[in-house]
Design goal:
globular, mainly alpha, about 250 residues
Length: about 250
């Protein structure tokens, strides 16, 4: 069986398993509900617009982006922290690697989580676009598409880190704990008192780049390259480790 076919089979199986999982369904409902509540409460949050944009209208337009920026890290952790460690803990990983290349397992598991997160973010932005149309009488298809694309990449970066952590741990509890630690450390280094080179190490540092593109026409290249680089490094490291580890 070819590697591409193996990846497709594992990805589709991962998506189906996610749709049957109570944890995944709970996370999906929670994310969409929090997005909806954030939009409904946006009129109260608009007072914060002075810290982000030049007008309350601009804050309303980009409110879905702000909500996603803060919700997605934890959402991404909870849908991917046990991608490999759960299989190790249940011993099903031996059956899986006996039927597929180890690299295919990592990539397939990763793509399954990406498919789930990208779809949920898409649904959230469709909901947000409809809401903003009735609120502001503006069709925000372009900005919603850019936000969806960039937030999907942002989530994909965090998921890649969680998949690496999951590959290196033996059970889901350890994976969750270390994933949260990695997320907290990413937040800590964002402290403006730290040197610029250190803060730029955190993937969360690039979360707002799409806002600069939408509001001021700033280039998205930096954020795309940084987040894409994180993904390549983390998934490559996960594959290398998984190929060498004893199961």
């Amino acid at each position: 069986m070819g590697i591409l076919k193996e990846v497709c089979i594992i990805t589709s199986d991962e998506i189906l398993q996610s749709l049957k999982s109570k944890k995944a369904i709970l996370m999906i409902v929670a994310y969409l509900l929090l997005m909806y509540l954030g939009l409904k409460l946006g009129s109260f949050l608009e007072i914060l617009s002075i810290f982000f944009t030049e007008s309350r209208r601009a804050f309303s337009l980009y409110l879905p982006y702000y909500i996603s920026m803060f919700l997605l890290p934890m959402f991404s952790v909870f849908i991917s922290y046990d991608a490999i460690s759960e299989e190790k803990h249940s011993k099903s990983i031996k059956y899986l690697v006996g039927r597929a290349n180890r690299a295919s397992v990592i990539v397939g598991k990763y793509m399954g989580a990406i498919a789930l997160s990208t779809t949920i973010i898409f649904v959230a932005y469709v909901m947000a676009t409809i809401y903003l149309y009735f609120k502001l009488k503006e069709v925000m298809i372009y900005s919603s598409f850019i936000s969806w694309f960039y937030m999907s990449l942002y989530a994909a970066c965090i998921i890649s880190i969680c998949v690496l952590v999951s590959t290196m741990t033996k059970n889901p509890n350890s994976s969750l704990n270390f994933s949260i630690v990695a997320l907290v450390l990413s937040l800590i280094v964002l402290n403006p008192l730290w040197p610029a080179w250190l803060t730029s190490i955190s993937p969360l540092y690039y979360a707002k780049d799409a806002l600069g593109f939408l509001s001021n026409g700033e280039s998205l290249a930096r954020g795309i390259l940084a987040l894409g680089g994180y993904i390549i490094v983390c998934i490559s490291a996960a594959i290398i480790y998984f190929r060498r580890c004893d199961l």
